[in-house]
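Forum > Structural Biology > Help requests

Title: Can anyone predict the 3D structure of Spermidine/putrescine ABC transporter permease?

Hi all, first post here. I have the sequence for Spermidine/putrescine ABC transporter permease but no way to get a structure on my laptop. I'd be grateful if someone could post the structure tokens.
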Amino acid sequence: MKRRKPGFLQLSSWLGFAFLYAPIISLIVYSFNASKLVTVWGGFSLKWYSALLDNEQIIDAAIVSLKVAVISASLAVVLGTLAGFCLSRFGRFRGRMALSGMITAPLVMPEVITGLSLLLLFVALEGSFGWPAGRGITTVIIAHVTFCMAYVAVVVQSRLATLDESLEEAAMDLGAKPWTLFFLVTLPLISPALISGWLLSFTLSLDDLVIASFVSGPGNSTLPMVIFSKVRLGVTPEINALATLMILVVAVSVLGATWQLRRQSRSVRSNA
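Reply #1:
Sure, ran it for you. Structure tokens for Spermidine/putrescine ABC transporter permease below:
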């Protein structure tokens, strides 16, 4: 069998990285452009970052998006973990297939359908019970939790499927109660999946535009909605600066999660 030359593999890797990250690097570079024209370099400048901090509309939208993303991701982790635990540990029970299908359905459902159905549901609830009173942050959080918990459930279920159950059996032999077993043994073992699910939910919520457009109300626009409305009038260097800050936040979150997962992995290996 003829072996591939190392140079070919390196070239393929560099082409792959360039395909993935060249647009992002270009956006970051032009966020420091002094010119008002986003494609004409006019020298290095930080004025667009300064202008961004003075833009109350973008700052308010960023605060709304971060608040929605943090709350949605946290609730999705709780509900998704319970769903994944039920599907993985309760074996066969009546309605298991229906529950599994209903949990994974949001993964393949078009966002337009999800947003429209949630809008109709909120309108019907408001007409029947008076809640929720209009559309706002609460309805956006509920909408984001509905599709984020599906991703968390899949991640947690996959982690539980590969978990060594002998550790839980040993804890039960030593007298651990079910809740003690869950919080002191199972939960730490699946913590990497919980961190991954939270980060995935946070990113999906922060990035969502379509569903939020259906269920948000006046004065509660999320950051993607504001960016999309501005981009329709033309891309400005201010938007490049905002996108660069978002990339920085996501990169720091991913690096922090990776560091925490490696730390836990080393701790498990040292205790083994």
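The chain has a mean pLDDT of 84. The chain is about 80% helix and 0% strand.
Shout if anything looks off.
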